[in-house]
Amino acid sequence: MPSFSDILAKESIFVDRNVLSPHYIPEILLFREEQIEKIMKVLSPAFKNERPHNLFIYGKTGTGKTASVKNIMKKFNDMERKEAVMTYVNCKVYNTRYRIIQKIAKTYISELDKSGFGLTYIYEKLVSWIIENKIRLIIVLDEVDMIKELDDLIYTLTRMNDELSEGSVSLLGISNKFNFKDELDARSKSSLYETEMVFTSYSAIELQEILKYRSNLGFKKGIVDESAINLTAAITASENGDARYALRLLLKAGEIAEDKNREKITDSEVEEARRNVDEDLAAEAIITLPDHQQLVLLSVADLDLKGSRYEKLNEEESGFLFSGEVYEEYRRNCKKHKKKPRTARWFQEYLNDLEMLGLITMVESGKGIRGHTRLIRIGYSAESLKNIIERNFRRGSIPTDSGEVL
Ligand SMILES: Nc1ncnc2c1ncn2[C@@H]1O[C@H](COP(=O)(O)OP(=O)(O)OP(=O)(O)O)[C@@H](O)[C@H]1O
Ligand SMILES: [Mg+2]
Hints:
The chain is α/β, with parallel strands linked by helices and 406 residues long. The protein has three domains: 33-199, Rossmann fold, CATH 3.40.50; 202-286, Helicase, Ruva Protein, domain 3 (Orthogonal Bundle), CATH 1.10.8; 289-394, Arc Repressor Mutant, subunit A (Orthogonal Bundle). The protein has helices spanning 4-9, 33-43, 65-78, 97-108, 119-133, 150-163, 186-192, 204-218, 226-239, 243-259, 267-287, 291-306, 323-336, 344-356, 382-394; strands spanning 55-59, 84-90, 136-142, 168-175, 195-199, 321-322, 360-364, 374-378. It has a five-stranded parallel sheet, with helices on both faces. Helix 6 links the parallel strand 3 (136-142) and strand 4 (168-175). 33% of the residues are buried. Bound molecules: adenosine-5'-triphosphate (ATP) and magnesium ion. Magnesium ion binds next to helix 3.
């Protein structure tokens, strides 16, 4: 029988696994010096008793927005100036005007610690606190697109500035949704976008440097092959340049090496990690999908396992399924799972959704094959997708139309 001492005595390839976790805030953010300096310049009036402009930061996922702002926040607070206050709100968690204003007020006004105060009361308390202490308050709204009544919130906070005889409120919004701006009122837009900044995606070379820096801190010397770093960077750059994904791959590759008692992280651990991480990501994406999309995906997986009936017709494009046969399979699956099948038009929409998530790929068939039709190929192993979806079904995440749980 194994003992804990045996397990603990085993040499680890990690120096500090935590350094590779997504929650770690690196002290140095490579390739972001320029952006960080620009943001610091925008915020610096807070230390001169002036109101900093509102700032909006946009950039795709994993481009270092949150990490950069947290890094700046640390420096900001290290200045130890009572009147300059920078506060961080994760809007995925605090996603309404009430929750956000309450969270901020509670942080600084202990009387509000209890719950149950109305918005007006909390608002008035916050105004008094700012005036009495001449506070220059900077509110970071990370993932600002998640806020349900954003126009209301921006309106309330801008109106607050009109009421303040001393001190001020500034907003620093962060988002990775490109079209998010279009959903805002003209007034909130011009307010939130007083200053704007873009974080561009990392190139393969930049990702290499970021990964090297982290692996030097996280792994023992000589554990990670240079080619493994380069491969991780190349895979990530070809997908989306998301540094979070790159670090996740590297951590997973390390865990695989450790698990299998290997002494080094090479290309093969990275390849294996990629399959692993991609499947985890697919599972995460599938869990949030509405039931009919899951049924369509299940049908693609089922058919892929059975093989297309038209395999022979379709020699040039092997491995593809016809959208017509997937639709038939979908109708069968609906029946099996006591769901009312949607029309073919909806079915096409669901296919588009699945393609957007990278769970399937589609091409238009050439004219020769049964007129014009869409050909579908599954993006991951059919078996694992089927397992993921059936597990969701068993967990009862999918109630039937009549409200029963499967
Ligand atoms: N320039 C960099 N140097 C070192 N690590 C970085 C750099 N940029 C990002 N990272 C790391 O990558 C991960 C993702 O970064 P971050 O959370 O800042 O992304 P984001 O732009 O906020 O993404 P999202 O839009 O999904 O919230 C973090 O673990 C972060 O530490
Ligand atoms: Mg972020």
